[in-house]
Design brief:
Layout (H helix, E strand, L loop, with lengths): L9 H4 L7 H6 L5 H8 L3 H14 L6 H4 L10 H4 L30 E2 L5 E7 L23 H12 L6 E6 L7 H12 L6 E6 L1 H4 L6 H9 L3 E6 L9 H12 L3 E7 L8 H13 L3 E6 L14 H14 L7 E4 L8 E2 L11 H10 L2
Parallel strand pairs: 2-3, 3-4, 4-5, 5-6, 6-7, 7-8
Antiparallel strand pairs: 1-2, 8-9
């Protein structure tokens, strides 16, 4: 029987409840050797590729995530998201370092304006976990650090743009910085009359649920701005009881919880699994929001799922789930004001527009 918690790291995980989120982050596994040894995987088979991938984009996996990985199973979907492989060295045409052309949309250091009514703040380059498919795995965070003077420039841009009504905290993972800094950002943004919302894109409440602590909830409750948190969950095994408790605390503080997933080969490219993910999220108080087609970032081509397969999965999800649990299949295209929904090709399958409309109504 495959064990979910690796025996070799049980001792490291036993005190998770007593450690702060900062300690858990600091204690993360950061080498391929430690990752393979802790999970009982043969280094003769995996270490060469893992080491090569690690040199390109370093390993970072915190203890709470490790506890959810099946011991000895190289195909575990949570492991696949964090284990470097030899394919990361391959140069494949069409897979680029900046697939969303973000470097062309930076009016101030750390501020990205890709959309008319929203602006994105790169709060930090640090993440709690390094996902191998990350579309920002090559982003030059060192050149976009928000030092105090750069923060003032970014705020000046926001004050001078009344058409912006929402600021998105991104990164890296914005919740990887201190609550004191985040509270300062919220106070500054609350003073800009045109702003209505702050949206926080974060994986931390799932990766290290202890991050949802009293000091985080305090600055959320104190702000006049509506807070929306967009989580990033790709597989139902990512959600355990500790995560559910953390999400319940966020909801109690008035946070609207949404989820976006990335469609990943070998992780979640299965309609039954995606349906279970939507049901699991909704049971935890999170609304499935987007299912992203893969962004063609260099070093991660082995995760890509064809558009034809993605559309077939989305059509099957529509048949399996009520409409409010079906995430929108989208792609981000540089230069467009928002995400672009992928045409599911229902009419190409012989389904008329009226039949498609009635099918959607039935599934609401």
């Amino acid at each position: 029987m495959i064990q979910r918690t690796p025996a070799r790291i049980e001792a490291r995980l036993a005190n998770n409840d007593n450690r702060t989120w900062q300690q858990l982050l600091s204690d993360s596994v950061t080498t391929p050797e430690a990752l393979l040894a802790g999970l009982g995987l043969d280094p003769a088979r995996w270490l060469g590729g893992a080491t090569a991938g690690h040199r390109l984009f370093p390993v970072r996996v915190p203890g709470p995530w490790l506890a959810r990985i099946r011991h000895g199973d190289p195909d575990d979907p949570l492991l696949r998201q964090v284990l470097p492989l030899h394919q990361e060295q391959e140069q494949v045409p069409g897979y680029v370092r900046d697939p969303l052309d973000e470097l062309a949309a930076t009016p101030a250091t750390g501020l990205i304006r890709k959309y008319r009514s929203r602006a994105l703040l790169m709060i930090t380059g640090q993440c709690a976990i390094n996902c191998r498919y990350c579309f920002r795995r090559h982003f030059p965070y060192g050149e976009h650090r928000l030092a105090p003077e750069e923060r003032e420039r970014a705020l000046a841009v926001l004050r001078a743009a009344p058409e912006i009504n929402e600021v998105i905290f991104s990164g890296g993972d914005p919740l990887a910085v201190s609550d004191r800094l985040l509270a300062r950002w919220m106070a500054e943004l609350s003073g800009i009359a045109s702003l209505q919302r702050v949206r926080i894109h974060s994986r931390l409440p799932v990766v290290i649920p202890q991050r949802v602590c009293d000091s985080l909830l305090a600055w959320i409750r104190q702000s006049r701005l509506q807070v929306v948190m967009v989580l990033h969950v790709n597989h139902p095994a990512e959600i355990d009881d500790e995560v559910r408790t953390a999400l319940a605390r966020l909801r109690a503080a008035g946070v609207t919880l949404l989820n976006q997933s990335v469609l990943l080969q070998g992780v979640n490219d299965d309609a039954a699994l995606l349906a279970t993910l939507s049901e699991t999220l909704f049971a935890a108080g999170v609304l499935p929001y987007y299912l992203h087609a893969f962004d063609p970032v260099a070093g991660a081509h082995h995760f890509d799922v064809s558009d034809q397969r993605a559309r077939a999965l989305a059509r099957e999800l529509q048949a399996r789930l009520p409409g409010f649990l079906v995430p929108r299949l989208v792609r981000e295209i540089p230069g467009r004001d928002g995400k672009t929904p992928l045409d599911l090709g229902l009419e190409d399958d012989g389904t008329s527009a009226e039949e498609a409309r009635m099918s959607n109504l039935v599934n609401l």
